[in-house]
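Private note to self, pasted from the team thread so I don't lose it. Backbone tokens:
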């Protein structure tokens, strides 16, 4: 590879962290800075680099990200184009997302779950205070570090919170989100508010202790209809170390009707801080998932969606703008 091919702007692409359906995420070094600072670059894949909708989504992610400044959220620093490749410059953090950290089951994170859940909730709460609804809360969109520090990422389909009269005229152009974590109202293309993110966050909490999402389906539609009508599972069924109080809290978050969920992430945090997750304190595993950094492990990893879930099909992803 020629030297210039390794660069985007002043950034030398040092290592590929992940390939998604539309973007590659690279660890990159700013060779012009005196301390050779490292960043994460989210670069549109060559096949998407001139797709108008993808370009708009990347710009949107930049606009959302630059309005957010919290230690619980990955900083979005710049939006640039070089050699025909549009990209975002992001704060570099642990390359292990929560889904990868759960790959060997919930025990990997169990011993520091209080910290992870609290920080994950704080990131989401902060976003809500800035009047954004994330709309794609899932384990893949949280990065987790070895010490449990957790940050929220991926604002591609975030929407401004609607209030007053604009609520009345809301009609979703397309249904967007990730099937395993989508609230009933999001599936139906109705207006989403904080409580839609709380539903998805409830699904994430379920998975953190149960090791699998609350609903699975034989087909994408089967999975969606379970969110709409199936009875809400308790994580205790999959992990008998989970307390009834915590299980009940997750079940309330996954209530079909938004009114039956906690009103805000703040309400959730208040309750969570007064709740024990585990009956017995979990042990620190002998082998840490962080010693075997998930990132790029195999060719299979490169093409499959990281969660192996069905995302709402590419067509709708492309239509979102
Ligand atoms: N700032 C970052 N630092 C380290 N790894 C990151 C960073 N941002 C993203 N990643 C990795 O890249 C993956 C995909 O990033 P994401 O922004 O969610 O893109 P996509 O829109 O393709 O889902 C994440 O799940 C994570 O593993
Ligand atoms: Mg993502």
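Design output:
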């Amino acid at each position: 590879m020629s030297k210039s091919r390794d660069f985007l702007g002043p950034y030398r692409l040092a290592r590929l962290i992940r390939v998604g359906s539309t973007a590659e995420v690279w660890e990159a070094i700013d060779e012009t800075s005196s301390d050779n600072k490292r960043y994460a670059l989210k670069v549109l894949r060559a096949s998407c680099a001139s797709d108008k909708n993808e370009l708009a989504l990347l710009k949107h992610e930049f606009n959302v990200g630059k309005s957010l400044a919290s230690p619980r959220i990955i900083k979005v620093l710049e939006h640039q184009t070089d050699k025909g490749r549009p990209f975002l410059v992001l704060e570099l953090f642990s390359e292990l997302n929560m889904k990868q950290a759960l790959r060997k089951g919930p025990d990997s994170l169990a011993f520091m779950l209080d910290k992870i859940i609290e920080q994950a909730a704080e990131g989401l709460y902060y976003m809500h205070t800035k009047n954004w609804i994330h709309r794609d809360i899932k384990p893949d969109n949280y990065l987790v570090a070895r010490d449990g520090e957790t940050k929220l990422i991926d604002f591609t389909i975030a929407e401004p919170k609607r209030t007053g009269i604009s609520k009345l005229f809301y009609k979703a152009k397309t249904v967007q989100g990730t099937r395993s974590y989508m609230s009933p109202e999001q599936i139906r293309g109705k207006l989403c508010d904080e409580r839609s993110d709380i539903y998805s966050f409830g699904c994430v909490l379920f998975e953190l202790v149960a090791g699998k999402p609350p609903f699975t389906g034989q087909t994408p539609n089967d999975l969606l209809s379970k969110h709409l009508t199936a009875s809400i599972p308790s994580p205790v069924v999959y992990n008998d170390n989970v307390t009834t109080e915590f299980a009940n809290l997750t079940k309330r978050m996954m209530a079909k009707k938004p009114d039956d969920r906690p009103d805000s992430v703040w309400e959730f945090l208040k309750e969570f801080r007064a709740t024990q997750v585990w009956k017995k304190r979990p042990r620190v595993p002998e082998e840490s998932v962080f010693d075997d950094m998930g990132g790029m492990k195999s060719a299979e990893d490169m093409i499959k969606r990281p969660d192996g879930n069905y995302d709402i099909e590419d067509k709708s992803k492309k239509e979102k703008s």
